[in-house]
Specification:
- This protein is of the alpha+beta class.
- The protein has a single domain, classed as Nucleoside Triphosphate Pyrophosphohydrolase, CATH 3.90.79.10.
- The protein is 25% helix and 39% strand.
- It is built from three helices and seven strands.
- Strands 1, 2, 3, 4, 5, 6 and 7 form a seven-stranded mixed sheet that branches.
- A hairpin with a 6-residue loop joins strand 2 and strand 3.
- It is globular.
Length: 148
């Protein structure tokens, strides 16, 4: 049985970006784990019994980054599943896309993470070491560009 986790790719739009370059003003939130290899990842976690996938994504985002569902806008039309092995067992992670309503919202980390960064696409891809995560971030960025 595959391990199942869900999370949100959180982004913000910086006010200072000129309207013609809106996508240049987009930054993605990555959290650095305080365990293992200290990798960088969007907020995510395992599905609890009785919880649906999207509830899990919002709960984990609140627990790991201190962001309430009311502070976020879920972006319709984007959902991505990643599949990869962890400790020899298959894992499925489902991500949705969400924008913080206020780009100055404070991030409050749990003990699971030791740092966070808001990063432009290029830097986010450098921090996210896994190829499938890099590909997903690029895909999200293209999706947001196509909506402008």
């Amino acid at each position: 049985m595959a391990v199942r986790a869900c999370g949100l790719i959180i982004f913000r739009r910086l006010q200072r970006a000129p309207p013609s370059k809106v996508t240049e003003g987009i930054e993605y939130l990555l959290l650095q784990t305080s365990y293992g290899t200290h990798h960088w990842t969007p907020p995510k976690g395992h599905v609890d019994p009785g919880e649906d996938d999207l509830q899990t994504a919002f709960r984990e985002t609140q627990e790991e980054a201190g962001l309430q569902a009311s502070q976020l806008t879920l972006i319709e039309g984007y959902k991505k599943e990643l599949h990869y092995p962890v400790h020899g067992k298959p894992k499925t992670v489902i991500y949705w896309l969400a924008e913080v309503k206020d780009c100055n919202t404070e991030i409050k980390l749990s003990e699971e993470h030791q740092a966070f960064r808001w990063l432009k696409l290029e830097d986010a891809c450098k921090f996210a070491e896994y190829e499938d995560m890099q590909a997903m971030l690029k895909e999200v960025h293209q999706f947001l560009c196509s909506k402008e």
